[in-house]
Specification:
Elements: E1 3-7, E2 10-12, E3 18-25, E4 33-39, E5 46-51, E6 57-59, E7 67-72, E8 77-82, E9 91-99, E10 102-105, E11 109-113
Parallel strand pairs: 2-11
Antiparallel strand pairs: 1-3, 3-8, 4-5, 4-9, 5-6, 7-8, 9-10, 9-11
């Protein structure tokens, strides 16, 4: 059974940092794109950042310069380093792996940015 399991969410003060991790199991995703999405209360799910199988990263405009996505194909993981967090970054963050006819999502991890 394929699973994507996110971890690392929590409560952080504005200006703080968090590192999210996503561990994939059940199959390898070395040939797939992987990424992070988020969904804030009352809003649609949106792409935060993605990384291709070759390591090329894409960031949504609001995350450029603050977030860094990385992946470890040997460990079948993808991570999101989030710095300079703002209240508007509060959301449930989801891991996704897709490509070549597959599309998998994790169940999400909650990030709350508040003082």
């Amino acid at each position: 059974q394929v699973q994507l399991v996110e971890s690392g969410g929590g409560l952080v003060q504005p200006g703080g940092s968090l590192r999210l991790s996503c561990a994939a199991s059940g199959r390898t995703f070395s040939s797939s794109s992987m990424g992070w999405y988020r969904q804030a209360p009352g809003k649609e799910r949106e792409l935060v950042a993605s990384i291709s199988s070759g390591g090329s990263a894409y960031y949504a405009d609001s995350q450029k310069g603050r977030f860094t996505i990385s992946r470890d194909n040997d460990k079948n993981t993808v991570a999101l380093q989030m710095n300079s967090l703002k209240a508007e970054d509060t959301a449930v963050y989801y891991c996704r792996a897709w490509g070549y006819g597959v599309d998998y999502w994790g169940k999400g991890t909650l990030v709350t940015v508040s003082s």
